[in-house]
Write a structure and sequence with these properties.
Structural class: alpha+beta
Strand content: 15-25%
Protein name: Serine/threonine-protein kinase 35
Radius of gyration: 22 Å
Largest sheet: 7 strands, antiparallel
Helix content: 25-40%
Low-confidence stretches: 1-48, 51-69, 267-275
Region (Disordered): 1-44
Keywords: ATP-binding, Kinase, Nucleotide-binding, Serine/threonine-protein kinase, Transferase
Bound molecules: adenosine-5'-triphosphate, magnesium ion
GO cellular component, one term: nucleolus
GO molecular function, one term: ATP binding
Number of strands: 15
Amino acid sequence: METRHDGGRRGTQRAPERRLRRAERERVPPPPPPPLRGACAAAAATTKALAPASASTAMEVGGGPSQASSSSPPRYRLVAEIGRGAYGVVYEAVSGRTGARLAVKRIRCDAPENVELALAEFWALTSLRRRHPNVVRFEECVLQRDGLGQRMSHGNKQSALYLRLVETSLKGERILGYAEEPCYLWFVMEYCEGGDLNQYILSRRPDPATNKSFMLQLTSAIAFLHKNHIVHRDLKPDNILITETSGAPILKVADFGLSKVCAGLTARGKDGGNDDKNVNVNKYWLSSACGSDFYMAPEVWEGHYTAKADIFALGIIIWAMIERITFIDAETKKELLGTYIKQGTEIVPVGEALLENPKMELHIPQKRRTSMSEGIKQLLKDMLAANPQDRPDAFELESRMDQVTCAA
Ligand SMILES: Nc1ncnc2c1ncn2[C@@H]1O[C@H](COP(=O)(O)OP(=O)(O)OP(=O)(O)O)[C@@H](O)[C@H]1O
Ligand SMILES: [Mg+2]
């Protein structure tokens, strides 16, 4: 039986600014679908269509707007809505060119906060020169306005639209068009048909082998991101998706809307990969307090932290996964994997409790009947150390994780 808690928690008035802004957006009714013109409009009778296929060459070469041609099939056909986050709507889609099943996340780029989050996701995904099996595969990003699409490329100074997006984000005021001519960013990525980590774990019987495999996959993904100087900053079970197309479940870290590419640490290897472990992401200080409170490290609440914050979030996720500790999200009423500290009738995020009392001892395992090896107990305690310097970094974690067994 999982530990369930509803509502009773404190600390919302201390929730960081960025997270509050995300929560406020959730209360805004979803915008209507974008107006579709020309070939797009014809396709919209049955499905919604994104940038036309004929635009592909022009988009890749020139980066300029591409006009729909009446004979061209849509570049992507949207099949159904599959998810809705704080600032984006995600659709299942089919590639008009290859017939491949994909996921497309649409973000409306009017409010500066939306643009900021969209650009964060864009910069993180496009900064990766290589793929990793446990990071959601990014295909392309299309900027759409007035039913016309153009492929976005990183730092394209030729594209007036791209520059205006950056300006919108920097100035914090609407630069791009008016409400009647909205602009959208579409992120095309691999489709993860297996749901998220919450759904996967909570709909199956506990299995130490699956836990171990997931721990290794997640650690490998975070080490890859940190090696590439990306701090995710919003690791939580909802942002960990699953595919089972090849048999065994494969985890995919997704949702880079709060991520940070640590600029200035971009020393690249000969082949363009960022392999220089000496360029240390753990020495890059970040200051915007953001994330989802139950997974936030104590130093994130204070707004002075490094990539070690991702290690803390991973510690919370793994601890909750092994013991199946859940809470009910007050806003969505969904059951989510996550550990917390009980204080009377309230539940408090572990990071927040550690901020108040850094000497607080964590009781791992939390449940008497949980069978946990000494190795995993110690590893979790280290990952959840109040002082980030006492936590292993992602590279140390990779070698330690390999050696631990879950059950005693
Ligand atoms: N590649 C994908 N394949 C399948 N489903 C996906 C994919 N990407 C996202 N989703 C679904 O859409 C939901 C929202 O996606 P995502 O987390 O990227 O958006 P978001 O707006 O950043 O959300 P939030 O800020 O609330 O975390 C996910 O929780 C998931 O259910
Ligand atoms: Mg999300």
